[in-house]
Amino acid sequence: MAISAPEVLVVGAGPAGLEAARVLAGAGRAVRVADRAAEPGGALRLVARLPGRARFGDLADWLTAECRRLGVRFDLGAEVAEVTGSAVVATGSRRRPPGFAVSPGVEVLTAAEVLAGVGLPGSGLPAGPVVVHDPLGGPAGVGVAELLARNGREVAVVTPGPVVGERLGGDLVPANARLAGLGVGRETAAVLREVGGGTAVLADRWTGRTRELPCAVLVDAGPALAGRSLTRDGTARDGAVRLAGDAVAPRTVLEAVLEGRRAALALLGA
After folding, report:
1. Dihedral of alpha carbons 267, 45, 181, 124, sign
2. How far is residue 235's CA from residue 201's CA, in Å, rounded to a whole number?
3. Residues 174 and 241 in one domain
4. d(Cα 148, Cα 139) in Å, to the nearest integer?
């Protein structure tokens, strides 16, 4: 469906969309937030499922409560195909095609799919060892590996960096200690070349020498693609439609909130 309404439409109820709606409503604008999910929060709800990151769920709750207090109308379970009026598009990211060869015999999932419930008890995911591909060395790969290991899965993390989770900052050493305590394998300076037939083929980053890991499930924690613009020509036109958050490019939570705020202020200024 195409939507054009006198109120400001915010598509996406993640951190960028909720912050945009909060700022717009706080300035006296009528705002409607549309999202295909059954509850607001977007990626915040998924991240909150990682060990030690429940505070992201608290942020989702606060943003949602503030929007409701300010009179924002939520249209949940709604699929928006196109926007034609004044809007903020914060639709989140899209799955990126894998940067490695995939052949039958290995289930390939994204980190977001795992956090949505796939791979946990009762999910029906194939049994067997899990390999987490973490090319960025960020919190997603480490968090998913820890979550799966705590749920009894055999897990190994593959990263091209010198240490697993090199972008974790102050949690770097504690996170590696937790993974070691859970028996998670850590394959560093390794590039994932292909998966299939129950194995993952790794190449040493420096020598190119290959080796294999047993792998029934591959979890790709690599970066996603930007989301959809939802405008007819794929652009944000005339200042009437602003993009924010992962609809522009993959963002941290802080970046998404700031971008949602800036998108709202730009619409108010226009």
Report:
1. negative
2. 40
3. no
4. 14
Do residues 19 and 63 make contact, with C-beta atoms less than 8 angstroms apart? Answer: yes
Same domain? For 105 and 216 the reply is yes
Q: Would you give the end-to-end CA distance of the chain in angstroms? A: 26
**114, 117, 112: which is closest to 95 by C-alpha?**
112
Residue 264 pLDDT level (bands cut at 50, 70, 90): very high
Question: 122 with 209, same domain?
Answer: yes
Output 208-211 pairs: Cβ under 8 A, ≥24 positions apart: none
Residues 245 and 140 both lie in one domain? no
pTM for the whole structure: 0.82
What is the per-residue pLDDT for 84?
76
Long-range pairs of 63-66 with CB within 8 A, sequence gap ≥ 24? 63/15, 63/18, 63/19, 63/22, 64/13, 64/18, 64/40, 66/22
Q: How far is CA 57 from CA 14, 32, 110, 138, 244, in A?
A: 11, 22, 20, 19, 20
Domain boundary among 180, 201, 220: 220
User: What's the pLDDT at 52?
Assistant: 81
- On whether both 125 and 208 belong to a single domain, the answer is yes
> Measured between alpha carbons, how far is 263 from 270 in angstroms, rounded to an integer?
11
pLDDT single digits (tens) 52-64: 888 999 999 999 9
Q: Do 128 and 215 share a domain, yes or no?
A: yes
**Count of beta carbons in the 10 Å neighbourhood of residue 183:** 10
User: For the chain, what percent of residues have pLDDT higher than 70?
Assistant: 90
Q: Which domain holds residue 30?
A: 2-94+225-269
Residue with tokens 């924002």: 72
Q: What is the mean pLDDT of the chain?
A: 88
